[in-house]
Amino acid sequence: MESIKAVFWKPDPAAQMRKCNSLIRANTRKLDRDMVQLRTLDHKTRQYILQASKRGQRNPSQAKQAAQETRTFAKELIRIRKQSSRLATSKAQLQSVQMQVNEAFSVRKIEGSIRSSTGIMKDVNSLVRLPELTGTMRELSQELMKAGIIEEMVGDSLPNEELLDGEDEEAETEVDKVLGEILQGNLGKAKVDAGPVVQEPGEEEESLEEQEATLEQMRGRLEALKS
Fold it and tell me: DSSP secondary structure string, 143-154?
């Protein structure tokens, strides 16, 4: 019945606007959930850096290994923060799209016609290429094309390698910056806390294994957010 109506009647502008806003809200909620997960990973990774640093101070024989661990965790933290920043930027773009779409429908209501917007098309093109939003943003772009707000479909999603382009080159200098940020205010406290700590031989090994397993889980969750 709906398909028959579509042949003889033009789409209802109010229904089109509701559909577009619904899709935009769905994308916004997805970004909010992903950013909450990234904040959790950020906090956990900071704690692992502090724990590894304190362990190296308590046990000088493990200082080298602890230093390597802090740098590994710092690199993961850089990846988490870059992705979090990218998602925050995407959310701002999405909110801009929503305002522009509502404005376009308001103008249509007043003037009886709608003009295509290169600004909206540019933002939608950018957002649809994000792996996190590809599916629902494609659906939104189709609705916007039906309404005449944009004129063409958007390109393919960006591969993860392109999203993280330049990361390796920047990583080492950023690692030092991140470690300075996290450890600077805690070095004194860590030294005060450091005392004669008696540990069972298997206890430290188990802790390291747990941290390595957690690191793998974190990497998996980070990759899942990008796919």
Answer: HHHHHTS--S--
79 contacts 164 by C-beta, under 8 angstroms: yes
φ and ψ at residue 148, rounded to 5 degrees:
85, 15
In three-state form (DSSP H/G/I as H, E/B as E, the rest C), the secondary structure along the chain is CHHHHHHHCCCCHHHHHHHHHHHHHHHHHHHHHHHHHHHHHHHHHHHHHHHHHHHHHHCHHHHHHHHHHHHHHHHHHHHHHHHHHHHHHHHHHHHHHHHHHHHHHHHHHHHCCCCCCHHHHHHHHHHHCCCCCHHHHHHHHHHHHHHCCCCCCCCCCCCHHHHCCCHHHHHHHHHHHHHHHHHCCCHHHHHHHCCCCCCCHHHHHHHHHHHHHHHHHHHHHHHHHHC
Question: Which residue type, as a one-letter code, is found at position 118?
Answer: T
**Token reading at 204:** 């430290």
pTM of the model: 0.70
pLDDT tens string for the chain (227 positions)?
Answer: 445 444 445 668 788 889 999 999 999 999 999 999 999 999 999 999 999 999 888 888 888 888 888 989 999 999 999 999 999 999 999 999 899 888 888 877 666 556 667 778 888 888 877 777 877 788 888 888 887 877 765 555 545 555 555 555 556 888 888 999 998 755 433 333 333 333 444 444 445 666 666 667 666 666 665 55
